[in-house]
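Tokens in:
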């Protein structure tokens, strides 16, 4: 049975990170910004059925829920915990096999992802979020924040600058990082 082991605050005042007793995904992250995006994912779709849910992000052993500014957590948490108790994790869509594309085989992109995997993504996951590299054009890296980080003011400004400074220092001084 799936259940919540702990709940953590995130830097986003409208998002909570729910740590679960089971691993949901081993490799992927899944971000849903609205109910329509979650139609084919029974887990996310079930969470969106709860009034006040604005976005759902999950990976590994946690789910981050962002609520609307007017919603009350007390009306979301109870139904969410009840939903998890009856949810069959076998319904979670299978993860796709990871294939390396030409772009991912690019040495610069490999270096960027290696640094992000070691120094940035674990910290973001600790705050209930994630980071996806959308593309690399020359030395401009385009990223998309996920989960609690998606609409968090500190992610949009401070974290973006910190990531850029890290990549400039460790890889190439001409790297620029922009949010998608």
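Residues out:
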């Amino acid at each position: 049975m799936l259940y919540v082991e702990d709940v953590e605050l995130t830097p986003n005042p409208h998002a909570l990170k729910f740590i679960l007793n089971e691993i949901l995904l081993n490799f992927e992250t899944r971000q849903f910004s609205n109910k329509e995006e979650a139609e084919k994912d029974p887990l996310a779709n079930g969470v969106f059925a709860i009034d006040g849910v604005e976005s759902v992000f999950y990976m590994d052993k946690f789910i981050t829920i962002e609520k609307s500014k007017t919603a009350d957590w007390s009306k979301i948490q109870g139904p969410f915990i009840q939903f998890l108790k009856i949810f069959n994790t076998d319904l979670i869509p299978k993860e796709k096999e990871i294939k390396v594309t030409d772009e991912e085989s690019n040495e610069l992109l490999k270096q960027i992802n290696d640094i992000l995997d070691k120094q940035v993504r674990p910290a973001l996951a600790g705050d209930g979020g994630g980071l996806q590299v959308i593309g690399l054009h020359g030395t401009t890296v385009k990223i998309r924040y996920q989960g609690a980080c998606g609409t968090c003011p500190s992610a949009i400004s401070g974290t973006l600058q910190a990531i850029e400074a890290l990549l400039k220092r460790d890889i190439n001084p001409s790297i620029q990082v922009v949010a998608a």
